[in-house]
Amino acid sequence: MNIILFHSACGLRPAVRAAADRMRAGGHTVHVPDLYDGRVADSVEAGIAIRDEIGQDELLRRAVVAAAPHSDSGLVYAGFSLGAYFAGSVGLADVKACGLLLLHGTSDVPEDVSVDHLPVQLHVADPDLYEPDDWLNSWYLDMQRAGADVEVYRYRGAGHLYTDPDLPDWDAEAAERTWKLALGFLDTLG
Q: Is the pTM of this model over 0.70?
């Protein structure tokens, strides 16, 4: 599969590069744009400050520009937290999208979007400060209405960015389960 992987609000950290390497080891082509131009943060709060400084609209523009050269071949849009927002936002607008792999986050689902049986897999902490239950329930129903085939995996007790071993949210067991399921999901798309 051809995958574009967007980083979280913390930037293009080593964990994002390691995730791309895992996907490549599974035989996938992975594009990893740096929407922050080299800036990284050691906490979600510091990453949000960078996001706010650059601006959400500018970051979304950068995500679209990063995906455009690869979208003709059909992309799987993947992302971590804020990157999942970009993956969902750009992927739902791409009629050639092959799937969405969302880690630690979701995006708005436009009312007029139709994604006939688009495979979607979401992995999220339970509970998650940034993805509360009411929001996730609404997101799930909106994705179903749009026609997506959605799988949701929740990880009880894990922190928001539990797949990053260099952040306080790290949860080795939840991360390993996530990667096993995510790589299996990607294999089904190819």
A: yes
